[in-house]
From TrEMBL:
The keyword Lyase applies. Pathway: Amine and polyamine biosynthesis; ectoine biosynthesis; L-ectoine from L-aspartate 4-semialdehyde: step 3/3. NCBIfam families: PRK13290.1. This is L-ectoine synthase. SUPFAM superfamilies: RmlC-like cupins. Belongs to the ectoine synthase family. It comes from Paraburkholderia hospita. It comes from the Bacteria. Its EC number is 4.2.1.108. Signal peptide: none annotated. PANTHER family: L-ECTOINE SYNTHASE, PTHR39289. Keywords: Lyase. It catalyses: (2S)-4-acetamido-2-aminobutanoate = L-ectoine + H2O. Catalyzes the circularization of gamma-N-acetyl-alpha,gamma-diaminobutyric acid (ADABA) to ectoine (1,4,5,6-tetrahydro-2-methyl-4-pyrimidine carboxylic acid), which is an excellent osmoprotectant.
Length: 137
């Protein structure tokens, strides 16, 4: 069983910050469950253009108001507590925090290592997993 709280990530490599956002990575690849789980805050007034080419991401909004824009279609979707959006096709998108800080629970698969920050194209590199030298054929 894994039990961890958000406060335990503060000041560790699992607490990653960028311009207008911060992510507290509660579950990461090293935990061995196949996904990572993050408590993410996007500051009010922040706009981020992102695309996760190596990951699928699900996001559950639990505070604040904002929107996500699908850049391929131009469709805009309102975000408020209780909203969920899933980037299941490596969608290039914009996330905006419009009213209050946008608070999201984010799930990535495959899991993030935990220390990543966004690359120039708004995504994360795939993690490099060391081979399991204990496995036998």
């Amino acid at each position: 069983m894994l039990v961890r709280d958000v406060d335990s990530t503060v000041g560790t490599p699992r607490h990653v910050c960028g311009e207008g956002w911060e992510s507290k990575r509660l579950v990461v690849a090293a935990d061995g469950v196949g996904f990572s789980l993050h408590d993410t805050t996007v500051g009010e007034g922040t706009q981020m253009e992102l695309q996760y080419q190596h990951h699928v991401e699900a996001n559950y909004c639990f505070a604040g108001e904002g929107e996500v824009v699908d850049l391929a279609s131009g469709e805009r979707f309102q975000l408020r507590p209780g909203s969920v959006y899933v980037l299941d096709n490596h969608d290039r998108h914009v996330v905006r925090a419009i009213k209050g800080d946008l608070r999201l629970v984010c799930v990535f698969t495959p899991a993030l290592a935990g220390e990543e920050t966004h690359t120039a194209d708004g995504g994360y590199e795939p993690i490099r997993v060391a081979p399991d030298w204990t496995a036998t054929d």
